[in-house]
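Lecture 7, part B: from sequences to assemblies.

Below are the input chains for today's worked example.
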Amino acid sequence: MFANNALRLRLPMIAVAALSVAMSPTPPTTITYDQLSSLDAAKKCTIRPVAGKLYYDAIVAQRAQGTGLVDVEVMSHVATRLGFGLSPFGTLIPIRANDCTTVFFAEELARQLAIVGTNVDSALVSSIRSGLLPNSMYTRAALNKEMTRFRNDPAALAVSAHSVLWFKARQEVELLMNLRNITGSQVLRSNGTIEDHQMNLEERIDEIWINHFNVDGSKAEQYHGGSDNMIEALRGQTGGTFYSLLATVIKHPAMLVYLDNQANAYVCTSASACAASNQNLARELMELHTFGVGPQTATFTASPYTQADVEAMASILAGYNVKPFTDPTSPGQFVYNATLAANVSITMMGTTYTATGAPRLDTVLRMLANHPQTKANICTKLARNLFAASLVSAGTTACQGAWGADGNLDAIYAAMLGLPSFWSKANYMALYRTPIDQAMAVARAIGVNAVDLKREVQRWAMTHAAFEPTSSSGVQWVDRNTTLKSRSVWWTFQGIHNELKSLLGVYRGEIALPIGYSDLATDIMSSAYVDAASRTAFGIAALLDGMDADLRVDRVNRATKDVLNASLTTNGAAHTKQLYFERPAGLALGRVVSFFTFSPVTDPPYMLSPSKQAIVSAILASKTTWPYFPAHTGSESIAKAMAILALGNAHQMRK
Amino acid sequence: MASKTTIGLCLTLAGAAFAAGFWSVASDTPADHAAGSHDAQRAKGGSATPVPALEHPAEDDATIEWTGALHVEAPPRILDEVRRMGAASPGLAALPEPDRAWVLARASMAFTVGQTSRESIPQHIEELASIRQFAVLEREAPYVTPEDPSSSPEKHDPEAH
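Predicted structure of the full complex, as structure tokens:
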């Protein structure tokens, strides 16, 4: 029996591994990494855009009006708005920005748009995931069966192996989101160097939708639903239609359980007194997932629906249920319980929907997905994530114009990103990073990379096979996970997760509110938050020290160590910050400032704000007695100083 | 319970920067963050006016007796015919005795008011038993927060490697 189960567990991984080779980041077909300096006498790239011509033309059109982005700003824009911040690896770095890199990004945007919704990890991400996050590799049904087995084993029950398995599987999917955000745009070239495409459109888009359809993974009842599984299901639909995305998520066991539809049944207490017993999912489906407004009230009459419509929606949702995870055949899977459903006609928002069984919900969801209020709400939400406040209206209009039948998401993304105003100065660094953006961007800027992580995984011979639940008793499985957690690389990665938590307030998968987190970071902006963001940079730099420094390949940091160290000693932190992190001719390792409008460099003394100066001074003063690793006083300390210098300012918090 | 947790989370989100220090982070306690969504959705919207925490029927608490949307004074009677049909139900047999009564009573009510036909009673019993298993699992084998020190990176000693 175990052999069969093991095979069942492995099959999805084999398929993913095979596909991931094909889906690894590769340069667009029309321009290679080696052609990124192929400029003519007029500094124009000799390679012209093909698939990305729409985006390149939009960039040029905006420039022609005198309000466009120069090449280095285009690079920064795609990295921060369509990715998770600049990383210092490869040829696509600020100091090498030119017309060819802009052509590259236009082509790359077209390439990445085509793979949104495929949910296939790159080869690097897959290999790291296998060793570092082995419990994220298994299907929900497989995990549920093993949990039942552990629960029925007294020895395993004594160590709560079933709870640990549930927790680890969920937690590792959160860590997987971090891994994808940080390293999903990186590829290892044959010459051993890392090439980072900077843009990470699929993860950026998916994060918007995961937040829109937020499910609290830590809700105890998620035992049955598996929020980890829902994220993967959602990621497979973000390149389809809004209707297909909505239908997938609403009928997913995790959402059904999170919003209590497993307790929703159409109940009659007399022949004429029938109602749904739980309205939670119905209410959020209308108020959050589609219309974006509450039902009509005495003072709010603009809403397209009423409380009676919520009750009707709840009746339509009755019967959509989840099998308990102890079910022997399909634990935790979706089931339609026909006798718990409202097997009568239901009138909602003026339309009567006859009792057609399970398909009735699809009819209603399609109506919701194509309602003008839904278009306005969803398009505004997408536009708010992509455009400055003053440009949201234009973005929303482009989205609504591209909606088509059921909300064609690929067409919508393309229409919005093809607007010249997306590439305007007014849209550059105009949004504040969310806590997730901030933590991921800090990790990328400091040098967290796929090659270091993969090398660590290989060094410890970490593979998913050792953690396969079917291959062990519950007690053995818990022991193996304890071993996993003893590896420094695991702590480093978990530490980044904890840094994110310190900014967000909760782990990213444990946001209890159905509305998710605010995608307008200004909602939480404060001086204390800015300070915390600086400390995040500091903390992640320190965490990197937890991995063997000798094995790190972030050569950008190592090569500049002596230069920076000397400058810090001779000129002080303030001057070093300005010279190496802000000046165009410097290393530009921090944020990319607007070179188009950059004011002349001022020689020392350049004054930081007192609070920032105090932080920098404290770092430098303690670099020889740093509490984490007292024996390390070399690149580790400078890495910390770089982190705080590069990231400890408010501008860095923009995207 | 849910209200308190939700309000706590709101405060946490509003003052994220004041959350636990970045070196020492509170331990993982998934169950602590569980929140009833029907309370949560009342707390959203960013209104500056505090929303009073209302006590709602714990519809999402599967351990509490479910009386349905339309509450009745007395527990519904179990029909002999339904009880006989229930004797052949594997789903019902898997439930403890009090939960079997819960299923049979609701199946009897559904049949009495014409919601379920005689032919559908066995299926209705199976489906009621299926959703009742959620309550049984929550009551008899609750989720136990695993002891997970993973959020304490300062405990890590690289020299150990």
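Note for the exam: Chain B touches chain A through 72 residues (CB under 8 Å). Keep this in mind when comparing with the next example.
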